Amino acid sequence: MKWITRERPKIDRIACPWLIKNFVDPEAEFIYVPKEQVFEKAQEMNAIPYDIPGAEYSHEGKFCTFDYIIKRHGLSDSAIHQIALIVRGADTDSFELAPQAAGLWAISAGLSYNIKDDHEQLALGMKIYDALYSWARFVQDEKHTWSPKI
What we know:
It is a single chain. The protein is built from six helices and three strands, in the order E-H-E-H-E-H-H-H-H. By secondary structure, the chain is mainly α. A three-stranded parallel β-sheet has the order 2-1-3, covered by helices on one side. Helix 1 runs parallel beside helix 3, helix 1 (about 10-25) packs antiparallel against helix 4 (about 80-90) and helix 1 crosses helix 6 (about 120-140). The protein is globular. The termini are far apart.
């Protein structure tokens, strides 16, 4: 299926493709267009609009689109739910939700500033979310133990 959203992605518009590709639709294709063209192009291309007001897949109250996808598709992986809190904190400027939220925002804003091609940014962002998932699923209890005394 094709999924379409606003150009110049940051938090949700990178996190959602990662979530969709890995847990909802492995064959998904993602399209970025100017915000005023999202619904018109969605109809032309038979694509699902996301992370834009008026779309089914969008923010719902205090929850972001990433949260909606989890709910809509009944995803129960605890690591994904932990990432959802981080994504929501970063995407809604609610950094108090998770200590990692401010860092995710900083990385996303920096990527958007440095990389002007949306699909190049998506490819790099997918790797970042792969790493975040690995942390949440496998190594979040690992502590950095290096000591300058060594």
